[in-house]
Structures are given as C-alpha cells and as structure tokens.
Amino acid sequence: MPDSTTTVAELKRWVNDFVDRRDWHQFHAPKNLAMSLAIEAAELMEHFQWISVDQSREAVQHPQKLAEVGEELADVLCYALAMANELGLDLATTLRQKVAKNEQKYPADQYRGRYGPEDPG
Length: 121
Description:
By secondary structure, the protein is mainly α. 66% of the residues lie in helices and 0% in strands. It has one domain: Orthogonal Bundle (Helix Hairpins), CATH 1.10.287.1080.
C-alpha cells in the first residue's frame, strides 16, 4: 500500500500490532523509544557521513544505497510511531500544531530560499 492510500492511523496500527504480537510494550517506555529513535537516526546519518551535499542527493540514483537508506528511515519512523502509540499522541494533530508554530517562527516572506531572516550574501 503506497503513501497515497495509507493513513497515519494504519501505520500506527501496524506498528502496534507488531509490538503486541511480541509482547514488547513492557520495553517501550518513552525513554527507551527516544533512545532507540536516536540510534536509528544515527544509523541513517552514517549513510551520508563524509560525502558532499550533491553526493547525498545522488542516493536516488543508486538502488542498493536507496534501499539501505529506506530501511533506516523506516526504523526511525517505526520508533516514532511506537512512541506516539505509547504516549497516546495524535500525530496528525501534533504535526499540524507544530507546522503552525513554525509558520509563525519562520515566516515565508523572510525565510524563502535561506535559513535565516538576514541575507547571508
């Protein structure tokens, strides 16, 4: 099922069912999930360590590399979904609220095409 037809609720349910079948909720304290998420994020970063920005964008042209990156990204997503499950967070609401907060913090007219309000050039 592709992104276009899969809901966040379905993803959360898949992760929850996986965890349930293994009786792993007992290990899924928010502290443990946060640590696991950080570890998986570091494993994702390893794929891009010591290469240029342009080289990192070329990953899409290398199926094996892209598959490896995808697996690490999936691990990050699984832990994020597991944490949302354990904390009872509605991710769609949480994400909407965070984007709204970032809209205020980083107005498009001031940040378009740059990382800060002052033009670094």
